[in-house]
Amino acid sequence: MQRPIILFDYDPSRSSEVPKLLLQGIKGYLQADGYAAYDAVCRLEGVVRVGCMAHVRRKFMDAYKASKKKNTEAKKILLLIKALYKIEVALKTKSVAERKQTRLINATPLLDEFKAWLDVSQNKYPSSGLMGKAITYATNQWEYVQTT
What is the pLDDT of residues 103-137, one digit of tens each? Predict the structure, then answer.
């Protein structure tokens, strides 16, 4: 089994050329935030982009913390994400096949609940507010985070 590569590379530019150069010739999975330049790079280079639930979580945490009444909807999502994280902790020592099967059984219902909530909540909050931004970010990243 090949060991995963974990790389942090900083460049002050937001140019799409930066990830293109960085990922040139690389094959496999790339876990990244919502930076759109990765879409084209992954298509061109054969890299499968997967999302980062920590970035999604951060947006909902910001909305929760900023709410004077401690937004219960944000808390609901934070608890769903916590349950997803708990599944992942239990999978650390499992084989790839066992991870996939456990995710299908245990994570899929949580992800389905999360997506259903996003669909219903899309227009409930102003898009300029923290909750609206969290929902928009999660919705825009859904195709990537649901595959992780």
Answer: 999 999 999 999 999 999 999 999 999 999 999 99
Q: Are the C-beta atoms of 51 and 141 separated by less than 8 Å? A: yes
Distance CA 90, CA 112 (A): 20
Q: Collapse the DSSP code of 67 into the 3-class scheme (helix H, G, I; strand E, B; otherwise coil) and give the result.
A: coil
Q: 49 - beta bridge partners?
A: 30
User: Residue 74 belongs to what domain range?
Assistant: 53-145
Q: Residue-wise over 17-28: b if at least 16 C-beta within 10 A, else e?
A: ebbeeebeeeee
- Structural domains counted in the chain: 2
Query: In terms of domains, do 82 and 28 share one?
Result: no
Residue 125 · residue 135 · CB < 8 Å: yes
Q: What is the DSSP secondary structure assignment for residue 148, as one 8-state letter?
A: -
| Count of residues making up the chain | 148
Predicted TM-score (pTM) of this structure: 0.84
Contact in structure between 82 and 64 (CB atoms under 8 Å) = no
